[in-house]
Amino acid sequence: MDKELVKQFAEKYQDIKELFEKHQNLEKELEEYVKRPYLTPEEEMREKQIKLEKLYLKERIFELIKKYQKEGGEGWVK
Q1: CB 64 within 8 A of CB 26
Q2: What is the DSSP-derived secondary structure letter of residue 36?
Q3: Model's pTM, two decimal places?
């Protein structure tokens, strides 16, 4: 994820800001699971759920950025 681009849009658009903050919180939670030497089956399920949620949020953020770029004529996402 191009965090600098997302941060620029998060400063202007509240919906992107909220999604980005959720994404960042999930990233921190995921890091805790990665540090562990092993995971319980429940933790493994949660880890997979976090990854799916992060992916959804990332896709949604970039959908919104493209929408706002189209509306505002700002630079395009790579």
Answers
A1: no
A2: S
A3: 0.84
- Decide: residue 19, CB within 10 A, 0-12 exposed, 13-18 middle, 19+ buried: buried
SS3 state at 37: coil
- Pseudo-torsion of CA 32, 36, 39, 45, nearest 10°? 20
DSSP assignment, residue 73? T
Report how far residue 61's alpha carbon sits from residue 15's, in angstroms, rounded to the nearest whole number.
Answer: 9
- Domain regions of the chain by residue span: 3-71
What is the end-to-end Cα distance of the chain in Å, rounded? Answer: 11
Residue 50, SS3? helix
Task: Give how far the C-alpha of residue 62 lies from the chain's centroid of Cα atoms, to the nearest Å.
Answer: 9
Residue 49 has pLDDT above 60, yes or no: yes
